[in-house]
Amino acid sequence: MRDLKTPKLTIVGAGPGDAELITLKAIKALESADVVLYDALVNEELLQYAANAEIVFVGKRLGCHAYTQGQINELIVSMAHCYGHVVRLKGGDPFIFGRGSEEIEYVEKFGLETAIVPGISSALGVPAAVGISLTQRQIAESFWVITGTTSNHELSKDVHLASKSAATVVILMGMHKLEEIISIYKENRTDDLPIAIIQNGTKNNEKKVVGTINSIGNLVIKNKVSSPAIIVIGEVVKNTSKLTSYFQEHFDDEFIFQNLNLE
Predict the structure, then answer these.
(1) Is the pTM of the predicted complex or chain greater than 0.85?
(2) In 84-215, alpha helices (H)
(3) How far apart are CA 23 and CA 15, in angstroms?
């Protein structure tokens, strides 16, 4: 007969993709897990730390859901009452477009203990990994992080506001809305802002495309860049130390950095 354990949920951020960018606290949570429910953007190498746990994939990607969010919520509760400690492993940080707070709110109604382990958000970690500083003195005093897809499957209206500011703009889950994003910037700006798109950021198969608002659409099509990807828009892209010389040479032309070693 299975020993009864205290039903508990730990929401864990897995970081942006590179398995080494997970925190020590997250590893300890995985090591103590009885069940791990993990998302599509999680590096599966991390599952090795949950050697004694039952592993369940519950990932959701555009047009393809292993489980609905409601089903995931119910699964957390049932697994916790049956097995004990459930770790909900999410890509990036679970509280940045990760629905971590929604899951905690749901399971606490059923008496589960809860804990949170933050992760490195892809919105911050991916640009940093390729040398893009989201803030720079005299260039960008702030940055926006915006979802490319709202709960209504529409582009956030915040993109319209952000496009009018001097802030760096980071858009997550926005590749299928790229044409609309470009149109908004062209409507609200007269300058041809630099833009970087990083697919599979921090992973071995990372791909980087860098251009301007006017050139990026063709570059993405030409080089078959797709989701999952981070979009970074702003002058900081041009002024990034690892990219500046390339940008100065090619700024008026179409150009691409694909699988570049920028170290």
Answers:
(1) yes
(2) 100-108, 122-129, 158-163, 178-188
(3) 8
List the catalytic residue out of 173, 175, 208, 238: 173
Whether 173 sits among the annotated catalytic residues: the reply is yes
How many angstroms from the chain centroid is the CA of residue 222? 24
**From the CB of residue 199, how many other CB atoms can be counted at a distance below 10 Å?**
22
How would DSSP label each residue in 222-244?
A: HTT--SSEEEEESHHHHT-TTTH
Q: What sign does the CA torsion over 60, 199, 93, 41 have?
A: positive
Catalytic residue among 25, 60, 186, 203: 60
C-alpha span between 92 and 125 (Å, rounded): 9
Q: Which of 173, 3, 1, 35 is nearest to 107 (CA)?
A: 35
pLDDT at 257: 46
Q: Which of 39, 79, 177, 238 is catalytic?
A: 39
pLDDT tens for each residue of 219-228: 999 989 999 9
Reported confidence tier of residue 256, pLDDT bands at 50, 70, 90: very low
Q: Is 90 a catalytic residue?
A: no
Q: What CA–CA distance (Å, rounded) separates 31 from 49?
A: 5
Strands annotated E in the chain = 8-13, 35-38, 54-57, 60-61, 64-65, 85-90, 113-117, 143-147, 168-172, 194-199, 207-212, 229-233
CA distance 210 to 221: 13
Summarize pLDDT for 49-100 with one digit per residue, the tens: 999 999 999 997 655 667 899 999 999 999 999 999 999 999 999 999 999 9
Is 208 known to be catalytic? no
**CA geometry: angle at 238 spanning 236 and 244, to 5°?**
120
